[in-house]
Write a structure and sequence with these properties.
Elements lengths: L2 E10 L3 H17 L4 E6 L11 H4 L6 E10 L2 H17 L18 E5 L12
Antiparallel strand pairs: 1-3, 1-4, 2-3
């Protein structure tokens, strides 16, 4: 079964285009290192909760919105190897140099984790 890395972050609404461009560049690197799918989602219908919600989780400010993203890998072993390779790329590539190419969001408020799927349902395509 696949393996998934999930991310939630706050992005200034004014940085939407910049975020998409940044994500497309970084996401290609995930794919080059073994990921089979990367999804970046801009908040559309995200309710505010009374106790907790996505906005509170990443401490969004009034001018920010929530991004929900995930990277799907074929398995944990491929993910571990791919992430190790990406760490080497990050050390060598100016793409990940915050002085030369700052992220269009505050990485300190990003929430992330790796998950092992326990249910994986797919709709069968009708040919």
């Amino acid at each position: 079964m696949s393996y998934v890395d999930g991310y939630i972050l706050a992005v200034p609404k004014a940085n939407r285009t910049r975020f998409i461009e940044y994500a497309e560049t970084v996401d290609r690197i995930f794919i080059e290192h073994g990921a089979i799918r990367v999804i970046e989602c801009w908040a559309d219908d995200v309710p505010e909760g009374k106790i907790t919600d996505f906005y509170k989780a990443v401490q969004t400010k009034d001018d920010e919105t929530v991004i929900f993203s995930w990277v799907e890998w074929p398995d944990k072993e491929t993910r571990d190897a791919g992430m190790a390779q990406m760490e080497e790329v990050m050390k060598a590539d100016d793409l990940f140099n915050p002085e030369k190419n700052p992220m269009p969001f505050d990485g300190m408020r990003m929430i992330y984790g790796s998950f092992q799927p326990v249910v994986d349902l797919h709709k069968k395509s009708s040919d």
